[in-house]
Amino acid sequence: MRSGMFHWLAGAAVAIALASPANAQKKYDTGASDTEIKIGQTVPFSGPASAYAGIGKTQAAYFKMINEQGGINGRKLNLIQYDDAYSPPKAVEQVRKLVEGDEVLFTFQIIGTPSNAAVQKYLNGKKVPQLLAATGASKFTDPKNFPWTMGYNPNYQSEGRIYGQYILKNHPNAKIGILYQNDDLGRDYITGLKEALGGKSATMIVAEASYELTDPTIDSQIVRLKAAGADLLYDASTPKFAAQAIKKVADLGWKPVHILDINASPISATLKPAGLDISTDIISTAYGKDPGDPQWKDDAGMKAYFAFMDKYYPEGDKQNTVNIYGYATAELLVHILRQCGDDLTRENLMKQATSLKNATGSLSLPGMVTNTSPTDYRINKQMQMMKFNGERWELFGPIIEDAGPAG
């Protein structure tokens, strides 16, 4: 989830003409009514991924703003949130509670690959939308097998393919050491990288080291990768462990090219805890405007975001891209719900989410658009490379659109 991590729609910026006649009959599924739309969500307010808690807090604040403005077509948004501590068993328990107890219309932005994976079959079996899941694992953009699941983040395999292209062009003789989270997130990043490296992958990758979410540190893994002779560190992790990796790399006096996945790139959640000085020159990707980048200081979308934070979430860090990600995803959901009109059925919700055409978000990078279809659920297929300069991320190179498979 990351810094420039967002490609979404500004609900207020896109005019939607509803095809239904004004007197069409209203349609509701469980969780929707004339006055309310119930939305369910689990968030790691505690646990090893608590750095992402700001996502849920920002989204709750955004929906409060929408409700104060009259809601969605006269209906108030009722966001019901539970802490899953980034624990799959806890996520299962809480999502069952949301569906069977609270009777939500859909789940929104469940955070993290492990939690989403734990509830995907259950939600699809119940035909409850798992909408804009906060993960880029490929199994969450697989409409053939999971038609009720739609991920939001760039597909991790797509991102991995982009890093592979970058490495081949700029570091063709690199000796690659891979650090990865031992779950779908980490494995997808490795798959994408190896696909892009092709026949060179076997010779360029000199070592791989995984970690578990329950591991207290990843020091031994970093030591092992350095000892293998790696001069490029491919880091497929999350903020807590990425910060540890940056620190250990510095402690060892090791100076590899360090590529960090988009989920672990927030400055406030990863680079500041690690140390901005030792994070200089780390490389990642972006798909949205960074609030810390001065080139956007007069941007209308960024001004609206800052004004929102001042009024509705003043205790939140405006520079933390975790919060801007929460704003972006809430903005997209509001657009989709407005597009549903008075047909608030689960089927129509998925229909609207999977028929976005050349949509542009208020904070998306210039030139980026979103297109979805019943066979391609990916919200974000375009990215741009960036490098940390010691204070902020700097974009470089062209916008790259992944041409790989949708699933």
In short:
This protein has 407 residues and is of the alpha/beta class. It has helices at 53-68, 88-101, 113-126, 156-170, 184-197, 201-204, 219-227, 239-251, 267-274, 300-312, 321-340, 346-353, and strands spanning 27-28, 36-43, 76-83, 106-108, 130-133, 149-151, 176-181, 205-211, 232-236, 257-260, 283-286, 343-344, 382-388, 393-401. The chain is built from 12 helices and 14 strands.
Verbal overview:
- This protein has 407 residues and is α/β, with parallel strands linked by helices.
- The chain has two domains: 11-154 and 291-376, Response regulator (Rossmann fold, 3-Layer(aba) Sandwich); 156-286 and 386-401, Response regulator (Rossmann fold), CATH 3.40.50.
- Helices cover 36% and strands 18% of the residues.
- The chain has helices spanning 53-68, 88-101, 113-126, 156-170, 184-197, 201-204, 219-227, 239-251, 267-274, 300-312, 321-340, 346-353, and strands at 27-28, 36-43, 76-83, 106-108, 130-133, 149-151, 176-181, 205-211, 232-236, 257-260, 283-286, 343-344, 382-388, 393-401.
- The strands form four sheets. It has a five-stranded parallel β-sheet, sandwiched between helices.
- The protein starts with 26 loop residues before the first strand and ends in a 6-residue tail after the last strand.
